[in-house]
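Chain A, query sequence.
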Amino acid sequence: MVNSRLKEKVRHLLEAMLTALLFCTQTILDAGWAISVMSVPLLPYVIGFLSGQANPEREIQVLFFSKSVMVGRVIALIGVIVLLLAAMQWLWNHAKGGGLIKKGAYSVVRHPQFTGIIIITIGLTVMVLTYPTGSPLQLAGLWLIQILGYIAIARYEEWRLLKRFGENYRQYKRNVPFLFPIKCPYRIPETLFTILIAILIYAFLLFFPYNLIRIL
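Chain A, predicted structure.
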C-alpha cells in the first residue's frame, strides 16, 4: 500500500515537472538572436543575462503594464483563472479522498488544468506576436509543439484513470470533451480531433493581423 502511494506521488511529481518544462519553453517577450534555441527551456533568457543583453525591467514593464499587448494579457489572465479554479477543485477533492471529479470545471473538459495552461500560452503567444518580436512562424510553431506535449501528458493520465476508475471513467469520457470544450465527432479519434483544433489555433496565431489589436 505504501509502495503504491509512493509510486503515485512520484508519477504526479514527474508529470508536474514535465508540464513545467513545456511551459518554460514559452517565449514571453524578446529572446533576441537566441530564439532559435527555444527548445531548451528559458535558455535565451539565460544567454541574454550572461551576455548583458537582457533588459528585465523593460520586459516586466511590457509583460504587465504595456497597453500594446492588452488583448494577449487578458487571454493569459483568463487562463490563470481557469487553472486556479481547476487546481483548487482538485486539491479540495484530494483532501476529501480523491474520487473521480465530474463537477465544476471538470464537467466542461476532462483536464481543465491543462486547458488553463493552454489558454495562458495562447495569451503569451498573442502578446509576443502583438509586440512584435521574433519570427511568427517559429513562435506559433513553438506553441503547437507545447500543445502536443500537453496532449501526450493528458493521454497518459487518462490511461492511469481508466485503470483506476474503469467503466465509471469510460462513461465520463463519453460525456465530457478532452482538452477543448468541443464535442468530438464519433467518427474521428479524439486525439486526432484535439490535434486538428490545435492546428487551427496555430493557423489563427500565425495569420491573425495583430496590428488590429495593438494598442498604442
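Helices lie at 2-24, 43-51, 56-64, 70-95, 112-130, 136-165, 167-175, 190-207. The longest helix spans residues 136-165.
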